[in-house]
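Amino acids appear as letters; backbone shape is given numerically. Here is one record.
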Amino acid sequence: MPEMPEVDALVGFLRDKCVGAVVAEIELVSFAVLKTYDPPLQAFAGLAVTDVVRHGKFIDLDVDGLHLVIHLAKAGWIRWSDKLADSRLKMGNGPLAMRLRLDAGDGPHVGFDLTEAGTRKGLAVYAVRDPQEVPGIAALGPDPMAPDFDLRPLLKRKMQVKRLLRDQKIIAGIGNAYSDEILHAARLSPFAIAEQLEDDEIDRLETAVHEVLAQAMAEAAGKPAAELKDAKRARMRVHGRAGETCDVCGDTIREVVFSDTSLQYCPTCQTGGKILKDRTTSKFLK
């Protein structure tokens, strides 16, 4: 799943490619991906892209005051092309969900496809006049990379710190992968209760949130969309590396599997050597 660093890099990539170009057409291949009806997609035709910004894990294309907002969910992605085929797309059930065709001055030949792998569909597109009309954006918590971000008040909750970091209504932009990385850097158990953290643990967590995300964003910046997934996997130290050796302490990275996701951690670095049991629980995943 793309998280803040990858989405931020995609936003930068799209800003460089799209700003100044005119929307020639938005071709919808999957009706299910479009979550709004007003304004219609046809209203974007002939308007210029004026900016591309990020709200948490949402991508917002400002098209002369109208907004095309994209949430890539778990398996969505953006596939850019400098030479789109002239033929129109057909409705279908494949991975292709939508195409944005742009005219950068020499005809409607550039743009990007929105794709989604797998059968569980979560990719979402919103055509709105104000990004705050998107429920997910309206409910977002503070951005952890904002200059005034303060983690301490957000921790006053009786909930597992892993779950808190992933809750978009509490903190915007962090998902399963980077919450694993942050907790490893902070030397905290994913099952630690947020309101019970000691001052030194909070200090480590604050430092880890900023440093892990800042480093990931710096490493992702400037990369084309096609390279971001592999680059993310390569930088992970614990996430997705169950059974491998922790490069900090040499212990074996462990995994806790839930009904539709998993987390990875290092026992020596994070839990005092304790092996966490699998605890399939809907409460943890909310």
